[in-house]
Write a structure and sequence with these properties.
The protein is mainly beta and 456 residues long. 3% of the residues lie in helices and 54% in strands.
Length: 456
């Protein structure tokens, strides 16, 4: 009866890296690969931990919000031309991202270690249950983090290598409507829900820091970091909800669930590189580039599906949902160009600013409310204050993201056909006017203990 196309999966991939995390990095526009110097170097470049000069405990919080507005465009037979459906917008609450870790030097100026928790930003979405966007998304939540140790070892006066070991966690959930009729009518809709989690997948990241001396003694820093691909094997539940559907009257029940499905999905290679210079001792300027290998992402696989609808009106051989589905990812590589600067305006105050541009992982005809991945620009600013010099530190940052506004008229995004009727022709539901923006705000506090490495 139902050849279920799992709608939850594609929304995970496109635009997953909404913005890199980290309070200091956010203030520098993500240009913090060659200049990373706190516990959060674990995420950007673990070799940067070599700059930690004293045992330091770091605690922080970031809030992330993505604003999306969409007016769907549909053909209006009565008027003989296009007509806009009502506007919808993302009304999910801001997404909370904690930051926690400890870093310390071990051998004076030669070895530093850290243990911490860090997570990329992936904001949640929530839209009206019966809104015009319901065939691409109703709600979604993605949460992924890494926790583990990292170390930086200076192998030469100018060269430091870094290694991080990661315990990675993924939780993903989404609800969407599929169609049994091929028309825009709640009576022909079936709600599909899925929630899954992978509680432990190991990985590692690598970093390099090369710091030759310029004339006059000012350092020039080159940073390189590699995050290998990760394949998550998440398990969770799935459900078909026929409440309100015209099919409910011929079924024995309106909701069918499977408490043990498997979702296999990968994240790509991420390569970060940066060059930082100090034209004067109190000013650091960094240019950086980040490449993500989304085009190499293999098919997304959902398997172990065990759902069978019960009805005397449906032939027995048509009652089961397909037990294994393979969905092509179809994404493009992304490149992010970044520029940031940091200025020490006082012995106990530093300010920073920066921004980045990133291309889209999808073509304009593939973008939808569930996959808002246009080219984007982020502008950020931040500051550090030391209320107690070299002991207590506070960091703040704010960034605003601007996505490209689209007037989509040749969309390939259609309703998902539940496979109930052979005559169903899914409607195109991706045409319309789509705009998006967002913000990131973060605060962190750090406490240093004991004597700074290198002090007499």
């Amino acid at each position: 009866m139902i050849s279920l196309l799992w709608a939850t999966v594609p929304a995970f991939a496109g635009g997953y890296f909404y913005s890199d995390s980290g309070i200091v990095a956010t203030g520098r526009g993500g240009a913090w690969i060659a200049g990373a110097d706190t516990q959060f170097a674990q995420y950007y470049n673990p070799a940067g931990l070599i700059r930690v000069r004293a045992p330091t405990l770091n605690v922080g919080w970031s809030g992330v919000q993505q604003n999306v507005r969409f007016r769907r465009l549909d053909p209006d037979p009565a008027e003989g031309g296009p007509a806009f459906d009502r506007e919808v917008h993302n009304h999910a609450a801001p997404f909370d991202v904690p930051e926690l870790g400890f870093a310390t030097p071990v051998l004076r100026d030669r070895l530093a270690v850290a243990f911490g928790f860090y997570s990329p930003f992936a904001p949640s979405s929530e839209y009206p249950e019966e809104g015009p966007q319901r065939y691409t998304i109703k709600d979604t939540e993605i949460y992924q983090f890494s926790i583990g140790p990292s170390a930086a070892l200076k192998v030469h006066d100018t060269l430091t290598v870094g290694l991080g070991l990661q315990w990675q966690y993924l939780q993903i959930g989404e609800t969407v409507d599929v169609t049994a009729s091929g028309i825009d009518d709640p009576a022909g809709d079936i709600a599909v829900e899925a929630r899954a989690a992978d509680r432990f997948t190991p990985n590692a990241n690598l970093g390099l820091l090369f710091e030759p001396r310029l004339l006059g003694g000012q350092p020039l820093s080159f940073g390189l970091a590699l995050q290998p691909p990760t394949t998550f094997h998440a398990r969770g539940s799935a459900a078909l909800d026929f409440e309100g559907s015209g099919l409910a009257v011929v079924l024995d029940q309106t909701r069918y669930e499977d408490d043990d499905v498997a979702l296999n999905i990968g994240l790509p290679w991420v390569v970060r590189a940066g060059v930082a210079v100090r034209p004067v001792p109190k000013l650091e300027i960094e240019g950086a580039v980040v490449w993500q290998d989304w085009s190499a992402l293999e098919d997304i696989v959902v398997e172990d599906i065990d759902i069978e609808v019960q009805s005397a009106f449906i032939p027995e051989d048509q009652r089961r949902v397909d037990d294994r589905l393979s969905l092509p990812a179809g994404l493009h590589d992304t490149v992010s160009l970044r520029l940031g600067a940091e200025l020490d305006v006082h012995e106990q105050v530093a300010v920073r600013a920066g921004g980045f541009w990133e291309n889209a992982a999808l073509g304009e005809d593939e973008v939808s409310v569930a996959l808002v991945d246009t080219s984007k620009v982020q502008i950020g600013a931040g500051a550090t204050v030391w209320p107690i010099a070299e002991r207590l530190r506070f960091d703040v940052a704010f960034a605003w993201l601007f996505f490209r506004s689209l007037e989509i008229r040749d969309s390939t995004v259609k309703q998902i056909d539940a496979g109930v009727l052979d005559t169903t022709v899914p409607l195109v539901v991706g045409n319309g006017d789509l705009s998006s923006s967002g913000w990131v705000v973060g605060v962190a506090g750090s406490v240093q203990f004991g004597r700074r490495d290198g002090d007499g």
